[in-house]
Amino acid sequence: MEKKNKFANYLCKPEENIYEIDFTRFKIRDMKTNTVLFEIAKPTDLRDCQESEEDVDPNAGRFVRYQFTPQFLRLKIVGATVEFTVGKRPVESFRMIEKHYFRDRLLKTFDFEFGFCIPYSRNTCEHIYEFPPLPEDLVNEMITSPFETRSDSFYFVDN
């Protein structure tokens, strides 16, 4: 994971997810005030969806686009809660590495262990992110170009 630039495309196809890991909810909160800053969840009953399978983008659900307030860039610690389900296979040593970029500059790398997940389980985990202090000129650039801040997430099973 020494790559310093963000990836342009996904490294795996959706059908290569042999563990059937499906992220169903994501929430970010300010740890100091406990304020929820962002929350998104998949519908629990897919019958509520009006689209046919042919209309669904196979990469839908593999990315989240959000825009935070300028105050977000000045936060020191946030909690990110993820909820995910696992299919019929046990998941050994589930790990996530996230790399956050502004343009082509790597800002921070986070490495989290989920551990073992039993088959057919729904799992929830909150990871605590400690942000590095950012120079004021960089914060201003990020505010004026909000969609140039990106991240790559990499998930590994059994190393």
Automatic annotation (TrEMBL):
Organism: Orchesella cincta (Springtail)
Domain called GMP phosphodiesterase delta subunit: residue spans: 15-159
Gene Ontology BP annotations: cilium assembly; lipoprotein transport; nervous system development
Keywords: Lipid-binding, Protein transport, Transport
Name this protein carries in UniProt: GMP phosphodiesterase delta subunit domain-containing protein
CC annotations in GO: cilium
One term of GO molecular function: lipid binding
Protein transport keyword on record: yes
Top-level taxon: Eukaryota
Similarity comment: family membership: Belongs to the PDE6D/unc-119 family.
A Pfam family reported for this protein in Swiss-Prot or TrEMBL: GMP_PDE_delta
Keyword Protein transport: yes
